[in-house]
Amino acid sequence: MASLRVVVLAGGVGGAKFTLGVREALARRGAPPATVVVNTGDDLWLSGVRLQPDVDSILYALAGVNDTARGWGRAGDTERVNDELQAWGAGWPWFTLGDLDLGTHLARTGWLREGASVTEVVARLSRRWPIGVRLLPMTDSEVDTHVVTDAGRMHFQEWWTRHRAAPAPRAFENPGIEAAVPAPGVREAIAEADVVLLAPSNPVVSIGPILAVPGVRDALRATPARVVGVSGIIGGAVVRGMADVCLAAIGVPTTAAAVAGHYGARAAGGLLDAWVMAEEDAALAPEVAALGVRPVVSPLWMTDAAASAAIVDAALEA
Ligand code: FO1
Predict the structure, then answer these.
(1) In which domain, by residue range, is 294 found?
(2) Is 53 in the pocket of ligand 1 (CB under 6 A)?
(3) CATH number of residue 304's parent domain
(4) pLDDT per residue over 1-29, tens digit each?
(5) Is the minimum distance from the CB of 66 to ligand 1 under 6 angstroms?
């Protein structure tokens, strides 16, 4: 299967760990680099610079320069500029911009100001290190994520980072997404793929915005590729992040079978051909099969790149 063409839809931290596994699994097969379509729904402007948290999490992880303890930003970063911004009362006091990380945001913002598209900016960022995948933003348009909560409406980053997802969410909205189109290459990559993988990222605020870009769902429904999702739920609990809160807001229980049902079977108008679920959730496999989705039971802890690659192997063999 040396010519195996793989497309991954991914969010930030979980997406980064999964993408490390994709890169390793494909390299072992001698397959071409995967195309990774990254959520840009939590991008934002702050202190005059453009941030792309999910793009940067994946980029830094593939380059081996990420802060693995925090899960975001650069390893060994300092915060001198951030301290100055705070002293000026600029930015958000609860949101840290590391010095090295700010270098990325400044480069990106400069290129955007010079007229480069988001796709071109992501391509330029990808050239610095041999990251071993092709990164594409989901769209070139600016799409925000807003959270409607009991405490009012706020930007996703404020809800997530400042309030730790505490105010109960009523809805997630992506103003402007109806007018967005998939970034150049996204539809083509999906159409020409052999396998499309949905990373075990947050189904609501990471994979959700990618699927909400008009045209992406249709491309997934039409592709001859197998579409395989990987559960981010293990043993009925989220592995990281606050996906359970997000799922509850859209009425989806935090179980591997319910999330498979949320994506739906391709055979029944949904997206999935197969669903990789944790050994801890094996008892739910018949429920997944009843949806019309092939369940694949596998260890799902992404403890290192080799463990992630084993999950990708299970997905590719599905
Ligand atoms: N997450 C935090 O919890 N606190 C921060 O101060 C913070 C800063 C930050 C700066 C740049 C960046 O790319 C990401 C950053 N994150 C921070 C992570 C990020 O807000 C979220 O984890 C993701 O957006 C959710 O996918």
Answers:
(1) 6-49+130-143+175-317
(2) yes
(3) 3.40.50.10680
(4) 568 999 999 999 899 999 999 999 999 99
(5) no
